[in-house]
Amino acid sequence: MDHDETAGLHRLHLEHSVANHASCRIAEKAGFVAEGIHRSSVPHADGWHDMHFHGRVSTDR
Q1: Taking the CB of residue 17, how many other CB atoms lie within 10 A of it?
Q2: Burial grade of 27 (CB within 10 A; 0-12, 13-18, 19 or more)
Q3: Which of 8, 13, 19, 37 is most solvent-facing, going by the fewest CB within 10 Å?
Q4: Quick check: 36 and 50 in contact, CB under 8 A?
């Protein structure tokens, strides 16, 4: 049984700015699958950013 199952979690997700390539690499190394882009969804100091959306479910290995 992995950590997600012992914590009772079925799904986790995260998002990061498409401009942040390091965060994308870290998410993928942690087992999160890229699921798409939320366009113009989060305000930053320099304007609205598109965000990469990643997910991981308990059945992922």
Answers
A1: 15
A2: buried
A3: 8
A4: no
Strand order in the sheet with 47-57: 11-17, 47-57, 33-44
Measured CA to CA, the distance from residue 18 to residue 46 in angstroms comes to 14
pLDDT tens digits, the chain, 61 residues: what are they?
455 455 788 999 999 999 999 999 999 999 999 999 999 999 999 999 999 999 999 998 7
Tell me which DSSP letter residue 22 carries. Answer: H
**Phi, psi (deg, nearest 5) at residue 36:** 150, -170
Amino acid at 1: M
Whole-angstrom distance, CA of residue 48 vs CA of residue 43: 4
pTM exceeds 0.85: no
